[in-house]
Amino acid sequence: MFNLHGKDVVSILDFNRELIEDVFNAAYIMEKYARGVGLNLLKGKIMATLFFEPSTRTRLSFESAMYRLGGSVIGFTSAEASSVAKGETLSDTIKTVENYCDCIVLRHPAEGAAKLAAELANVPVINAGSGAQEHPTQALLDIYTIKRELGRVDGLEIGIVGDLKYGRTVHSLVYALSLFNVNLSFVSPPGLRLRDEIEEDLRRKGIEFKYYEDIEKIIPNLDVIYVVRIQKERFPDPAEYLRVKGSYKITSSLISKAKSNCIILHPLPRVDEISLDVDSRPQAKYFIQTYYGLCMRMGLLSMILANKEDLKQLFYSSK
């Protein structure tokens, strides 16, 4: 319960399975406070959201989580809205903002930005997306959604479809899933396969995985279909993006071949990789996924910032 108190959340690699389960327990408790009842668990605490890249769900769910817990929020939503536009370095921004808040939630286009911020700051730093590297809280909410919707994670057949190379959500998710007993199927164009270091981590942990270029071959076997967009903004070469743009599309016709109880997840935003007519199918869980993300971030912020005695009382009274 207290393993995250005062700690940074930079990489999912800093989590073991027990700690992930602790976060899930906290998220489950927060579900009854996430729809308007609220808590005063973090009254007097201030969270700074420093978003150097666009965001809807991550930023708003973190802010909503903090408000639901009785805390306050400061921050900016783009580099242009801060002194970075005047040439200020990330280091100077962090060393300034830490004096105004109790934790920092950072999204930045550069890989390693969250790690640097955590090394500099004297308050906890939460990585809300660091370049094409990682997005650890997205992985936590993804797996929490799987557990809440299917009742388990172990033993599932999970397919991850789309940009596996540049998708930071995929990187964190695969690392996290490697702590569970799952079978992984990756569907992508050859040029967008996983990074070598992630494949090596899976092999070292004995996790079975295979690559496919045609999702129709495996869709009847999948319990979870996790879709990510082809991320134009991450491609160093625009020509490479144009070659793979629109490689995969999840349609209602395709989903008719899937298990009736499988679930479709997406970190959002989507562009054209999931047809709108899929939204009405019972397998579509990407919008409830955003609600579970709120609950998970409420739990995470509580574990990091709440008074230990208040947190203990809440957890024990909720059992």
What can you see in these coordinates?
This protein is an alpha/beta fold. The chain folds into 2 domains: 12-134 and 294-317, Rossmann fold (3-Layer(aba) Sandwich); 136-289, 3-Layer(aba) Sandwich (Rossmann fold). Helix content is 36%, strand content 14%. The protein is built from 11 helices and 9 strands. The strands form 2 sheets. Strands 7-6-5-8-9 form a 5-stranded parallel β-sheet, with helices on one face. A 4-stranded parallel β-sheet has the order 2-1-3-4. α3 crosses α4 and α5 (136-150) crosses α6. The chain is globular, with a radius of gyration of 19 Å. The two termini are 13 Å apart.
Q: What is shown here, in short?
A:
The chain is built from 11 helices and 9 strands. With 319 residues, it is of the alpha/beta class. It folds into 2 domains: 12-134 and 294-317, Rossmann fold, CATH 3.40.50; 136-289, Rossmann fold.
